[in-house]
Amino acid sequence: MHMRFFMREKKKSGGSPGNISWISVGLMRLKDGVLKTVRGTVLPLLMRPESDADELQRAAEQKMKTFDRNLHGGPYVLLYPDGTKITTIPGTEVPFTLNEYKEVVGKAYQRITLYICTAEDFFTSSQETSSESNSSDSEVIIMSPTSAEFNADYTLVWELADGESGTDSAAPIQNSPSVEILQDLMIRNSAMLQTAGCFRHVRSCEEKKMIVEDYLKWYIIHRNNTAIERFKAGLESLQFLTALQQHPTVLTPALCHADVKLSAAEMENLFQPEFSQQGSNRRAQEEKAMSYWADYLLDCEENDSSVTLEEVLMFATGVPCVPPAGMSPLPRLQFLCSTTSTFPMANTCANILKLPLLDTYGAFKANMNFGINNSPGFGCL
C-alpha cells in the first residue's frame, strides 16, 4: 500500500545556538507586602536564546550590580512580570529557556522583560499571599482587572495540551454543585485564573457565574486585544474600517465563519477532472472512476460511509470547508494507474486528489474509506 501525504511543517523561530539577542531585565522589591517593579531599573541584557533560568538570573544579577553600586545582598530570584518565580513555562512542566518563552509568548526578544528580586523579598511575599489566601475573614483579590489587561500583553499564557481548549476549565467551575467543590476547582486552576485576573476567595456557590464571565471575557477579548487592535489598524487603511462599520453586513460572508454543511453536488462541482485523450482505453477507465466518485460523494452525504464530505475535503486540500474567498488553486481530480496505487493519494499544497482506477464500486468505496481514515490530516496532529 502506497500513500502520499503532504504536510506543512511549523517553522521553528528563535535564535540558533551561538546567536545572541537583546532582552530587558528589571528589579522588583517588596512594598506593602506586594512585589512591585522599581521604576528606572530596566536595563538591556544580551543573552543566548538557549539560556535557562539559572544562567539568565546570574547574568541579570551581574548586570544590575554593574550599573547600580548600591545593589548588594542576595541571593536573587528570577521572576516573570507577574511576580512568579521562573523555573518552568507557566502551566507546564517544560523547563524554562529563553527561546521556548519567546516562541510561546509570540514576541520579539527585544520586547521581553523579566525581573529579579531578593530571595528574602520573594519568600516574604509568598508567605503573605499564602496567609491571606487561607483567611476566611476577607475576600482576597490576587489580581485587579487592570493587571489582567497588562498580563494579556506582557505575561505568558501557558501552552495548551493537544485537543484542549482554553475554555475547557471554565465548564467544571460553572457546573460546580457546592462551594467546597468550587473552592477546590479554583485552587486547581489557580494559574489560569490568576493570569485572567479572576482568582479570588469564594464564599458562596453563586459567585461561580461571575468568575466564569470574567474569565471568558479575558480569554476571548482581553487576551487577544493586541491582535484585534492591529487588525483594526490594518482595516483603517484607505478608511476601510469606517466603511465596514457603516455597512457591517456587506463583508459578513468573507469575515465571519458560517457553519454550512458541504453537499455532494458542491463537492462534485468543486473538483475538476483531468482526463486522458478522448477515445483512449484509459479515458474509459477514468470516466468509470468519475461515476464511482459521484456515487461515493452521495454515500458520504447520506451517512452511508465511514467518511464525511468534510473529511474528504480535508484529505484532498487540508481544509474541512470552502473558505469564503474560494480556493486557489482550484481543486482538481487526477487518476492513478492500478500499478501505482489502489488507494487515494493527495497533494494538499496543489489541491489535487488522485483517484484509484478500480473495477467495481465496492472496491472503490472500501479503498477510499480506508485511505482517508488512515491518513493523518491537517488539524488531526
Question: Outline of this structure?
Answer:
With 381 residues, this protein is of the alpha/beta class. The chain has helices spanning 53-67, 98-105, 119-134, 145-154, 170-174, 179-188, 190-196, 208-220, 225-235, 240-246, 252-255, 264-270, 281-301, 309-317, 361-373, and strands spanning 21-31, 34-37, 43-47, 76-79, 113-118, 272-273, 332-336, 345-347, 352-356. It is elongated, with a radius of gyration of 28 Å.
SSE-based structural type: alpha/beta
State the shape: elongated
Question: Quick one: biggest sheet?
Answer: 5 strands, mixed
* Ends distance: 22 Å
Beta content: 5-15%
Calculate the mean pLDDT score and round it.
Answer: 79
Radius of gyration: 28 Å
Q: Helical region count?
A: 15
What do we call the CATH topology of the domain at 18-127? Ubiquitin-like (UB roll)
Unreliable stretches:
1-18, 135-164
The H/E string reads: EEEHEHEHHHHHHHHHHEHHEEEH
* Name of the CATH first level of the domain at 18-127: Alpha Beta
**How does CATH name the architecture of the domain at 18-127?**
Roll
The level of helicity is 40-55%
Q: Report the count of strand segments.
A: 9
Protein name: G2/M phase-specific E3 ubiquitin-protein ligase-like isoform X2
InterPro entries: HECT_dom, Hect_E3_ubiquitin_ligase
Keywords: Transferase, Ubl conjugation pathway
GO molecular function: ubiquitin-protein transferase activity
